[in-house]
Automatic annotation (TrEMBL):
<dbReference type="GO" id="GO:0003924">
    <property type="term" value="F:GTPase activity"/>
</dbReference>
<dbReference type="InterPro" id="IPR005225">
    <property type="entry name" value="Small_GTP-bd"/>
</dbReference>
<protein>
    <submittedName>
        <fullName>Small guanosine triphosphatase family Ras-related in brain (Rab) family protein</fullName>
    </submittedName>
</protein>
<dbReference type="Pfam" id="PF00071">
    <property type="entry name" value="Ras"/>
</dbReference>
<feature type="region of interest" description="Disordered">
    <location>
        <begin position="183"/>
        <end position="218"/>
    </location>
</feature>
<dbReference type="GO" id="GO:0005525">
    <property type="term" value="F:GTP binding"/>
</dbReference>
<dbReference type="InterPro" id="IPR001806">
    <property type="entry name" value="Small_GTPase"/>
</dbReference>
<feature type="compositionally biased region" description="Polar residues">
    <location>
        <begin position="206"/>
        <end position="218"/>
    </location>
</feature>
<dbReference type="InterPro" id="IPR027417">
    <property type="entry name" value="P-loop_NTPase"/>
</dbReference>
<keyword id="KW-0547">Nucleotide-binding</keyword>
Amino acid sequence: MDQEDKEIKFSKKILVIGEAGVGKSAIIQKYVNNFYPEMYKQSLGCNFFSKQLDLSKTASVTLSIWDCSSESLKSKMLNTYIYGSDAVLFVYDITNRSSFDSIRNIMKLVQSVLIENNDVEYCVLGNKNDLFNQIAVEEDQAKEMCKILNLPYYSVSAKMGSNLNECFKNIAYKVCKLPFPSEEKKNDKSLEGSIPDLRSEVKGSNGDNKTSSGCNIF
């Protein structure tokens, strides 16, 4: 059955957020277009891309993936970028300790905006696992934090593409509230968590088929 013939069509917003240089844009480009940008270019505002996935014989989803730049964390537009997200992927760079340490504060910002939505899915991505000789954050540390926060964790590489399809596919099934294929159910043990409420700590916070597109919002 072609994408156009699916009986059930979902549309979901996925927000990818983290500090500068962690590889958010590269992750999205690799996942959506199978392209890795060799030269770093800092994003401005918020870019978004789309990708279509077949979830079953009768269901498909269009993921609108928002690439939220680090500059946006201080922008008056941040609430607009976050609002309406069905899932949020918090990204850090395993070779940059400060990017990992910032994850909790970014979570607080996001949750303060999504205060009325209890159905948002969250996960943490440790990017650049291909740079294993430059590790500043041990995977055990990241897993321990995610265990405390009850969040799924993925060790990924935008350059190599490792674990990206798995991550986005799992998130897609979760936000669409569809059962996983039986073989994935058996193997996946990391998707049961939901983010704890951190808002009390916030002070004064004002085969897949694919198509892709990119837009800038400032």
